[in-house]
Recover the amino acids of this structure.
């Protein structure tokens, strides 16, 4: 790929209007509605979105951000982040008598549904994403016994599966398109299904 000489003027184009994706807007609205309906404090598991300004604004309104649902007082209201969660998070919340408001992005929910479907079909799920990212943790939790994580092209190159003809591919929704395409291309080259 050719690069521009460093001394050439560059033009930066910004899309207008700019803003959050629909999933982020929906999640933020869920917290704001919970605060209006139940009053503070409303607990939010993890950061509702990866945006410090949004998080601080919601904290000022009475949202309390926690890392795990186990930190929420029994019987309280908890909002689950846009990134989605594994099924055991719902079970833990129910066991603690929490009022659960699910702010999972609809696109992430679709990925979760696909993961469960692929698992029911007995397929090995190759999930392209970043280890430890909340969305990846939640997606893996849908079918942990059937999911293999690939973070980069090198991992894609080294991946070994029992039945290459019985694969399904999923990606972290917030992964860059270029990274997803690059990893998928390597996987398809190595494991043509």
């Amino acid at each position: 790929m050719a690069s521009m000489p460093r001394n050439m003027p560059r033009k930066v184009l910004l899309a207008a209007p700019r803003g959050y994706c629909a999933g982020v807007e929906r999640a933020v609205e869920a917290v704001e509605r919970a605060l209006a309906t139940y009053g503070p404090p409303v607990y939010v598991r993890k950061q509702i979105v990866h945006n410090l300004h949004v998080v601080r604004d919601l904290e000022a309104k009475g949202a309390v951000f926690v890392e795990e649902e186990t930190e929420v007082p029994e019987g309280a209201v908890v909002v689950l982040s846009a990134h989605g969660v594994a099924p055991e998070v719902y079970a833990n919340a129910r066991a603690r008598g929490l009022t659960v408001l699910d702010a999972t992005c609809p696109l992430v929910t679709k990925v979760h549904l696909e993961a469960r479907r692929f698992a029911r079909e007995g397929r090995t799920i190759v999930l392209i994403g970043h280890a430890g990212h909340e969305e990846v943790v939640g997606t893996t939790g849908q079918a942990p016994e059937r999911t293999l994580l690939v973070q980069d092209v090198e991992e894609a190159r080294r991946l070994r599966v029992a039945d290459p003809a019985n694969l399904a591919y999923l990606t972290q929704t917030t992964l860059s398109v270029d990274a997803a395409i690059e990893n998928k291309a390597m996987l398809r080259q190595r494991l043509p299904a």
In short: Helices lie at 22-38, 52-61, 87-95, 106-120, 134-140, 153-158, 177-190. The mean pLDDT is 92. Strands lie at 42-45, 63-66, 77-80, 99-102, 124-128, 147-150, 167-171.
